[in-house]
Amino acid sequence: MRDVLVYAGHEAGSLNRSALEALAAGRKLANALGEGLAAIVAGVDASGAAAQAIAAGADKVYAVENPILAEFQPALYAAAAAAAVQQADARIVLLNLDGAGRDLVPRLASRLGAAALTEVVSFAAEGGTLKWTRPVYGGKAMAVYTALKDRQVVGLRAKTQDPATLDNSRTGEVVKVSFTVPESTAVTRVVDKIQEAVSGINLADARIIISGGRGLGGPEPFKELEALAAVLGGAVGASRAAVDAGWVAPTMQVGQTGTIVAPDLYIAVGISGASQHLAGITGAKNVIAINKDAEAPIFKRATLGIVADYKTVLPSLTAELKKAFGK
Ligand code: FAD
Predict the structure, then answer these.
(1) Is the pTM of this model over 0.85?
(2) pLDDT tens digits for 73-131?
(3) What 3 state SS string does 104-144 have?
(4) Rounded to the nearest whole angstrom, what is the distance from the C-alpha of residue 158 to the centroid of ligand 1?
(5) Beta strand ranges found along the chain (DSSP E)
(6) 211 C-alpha vs ligand 1 centroid, how far in Å?
(7) Which of 256, 266, 306 has most ligand 1 atoms within 8 Å of CB, for mutation?
(8) Which residue puts its alpha carbon closest to atom 16 of ligand 1?
């Protein structure tokens, strides 16, 4: 039996959300295939992450520990992950396409001579054949792929899988991976780390997001979005059009080339719903759209649509919610 293998990223020994999403998906796939689930953890002190990976559903953890892995360096981490895949003799390797995953999927597939699949949002095991589904043409259609190679490195689109919950009563085996690599393998070096100043709730983790688009007409109305966000305890996002116009910071962009979000509630104000924007909210549980054009594509994605000029809706919506929340 060959375990399904998941790359589990962590920060200082604590698994990140991406890892929990990939582990949950891995568990589903392993169950469907009747196989076990294993995880790769890499770093200088990976024991905490290994224990969490077991609590999150892994039966076995391949721990790659080496001082050279102190900083995330794509080339070194790809070599470390490849060593684990080879030791595990895994056929299927799942990674979350967060920042690290985007670096690792092609490198790992290339090192292993494996098939690479990216932006996968769902999968099925039909009679032993794995079918991977991903959006194509900017999300206008879904395509189902099967790989022509036995070994497959699969990147899951971030925020499309519910994260695994931890069950600390689970037990599993931790296997040390022997890994040596010449320092020259690293072709880049971290020279500085700049902590982005985030005020309020982080967009990527927010449970409620109010985003504004070109329809707001300028930077000023974003203050109204902030007022609504303050009442709801949410974060403010934006479409690329609003960012490109210089109305808000690029860190606020939601979408294919911005932040991928999965809030419980996403309120899109003056946003048309271009496929590249929708690609960033695939995981949003509820979408409310406020747009004056009844034909705007955002209404196809919306759970609730308000066809109106935002200026007539936002102030009264915020005032009513303030009353309702006693604020
Ligand atoms: P528009 O499409 O211009 O829509 C504005 C909407 O506001 C309209 O529907 C209009 O009816 C409505 N409106 C106008 N006035 C009012 C009013 N008073 N009240 C209510 N509604 C009003 N876009 C992203 O957002 N994120 C991305 O990550 C992203 N990545 C991209 C990557 C690539 C490679 C490319 C080519 C494009 C990308 N885009 C992205 C851009 C995307 O294609 C759209 O151009 C963009 O999302 C449009 O932004 P918008 O909806 O704010 O503007």
Answers:
(1) no
(2) 999 999 999 999 999 999 999 999 998 999 999 999 999 999 999 999 999 998 879 99
(3) HHHHHHHHHCCEEEEEECEEEEECCEEEEEEEEHHHCEEEE
(4) 22
(5) 4-7, 10-11, 14-15, 37-43, 60-65, 92-96, 115-120, 122-126, 129-136, 141-145, 152-156, 173-176, 208-212, 235-238, 265-269, 286-291, 304-307
(6) 11
(7) 256
(8) 215
Residues 6 or more apart in contact with residue 148 via CB below 8 angstroms: 115
Q: What's the chain's Rg over C-alpha atoms?
A: 22
User: How many H-runs (helices) and E-runs (strands) does the chain carry?
Assistant: 9, 17
Calpha distance 149→291 (Å, rounded): 46
- For residues 111 and 82, the answer to whether their CB atoms sit within 8 Å is yes
Pocket of ligand 1 (CB under 6 A): 213-215, 239-242, 253, 255-258, 270-272, 274, 276-277, 280, 290-293, 296, 309-311
Q: Where on the phi/psi map is residue 57: left (φ > 0), alpha (ψ -120 to 50), or beta?
A: left
Question: Three-state SS for 320?
Answer: helix
For 195, residues 6+ apart whose C-beta sits below 8 A from its C-beta are none
Atom of ligand 1 minimally distant from the CA of 310 = 19
- Give the strand pairing for 60-65 and 92-96: unpaired
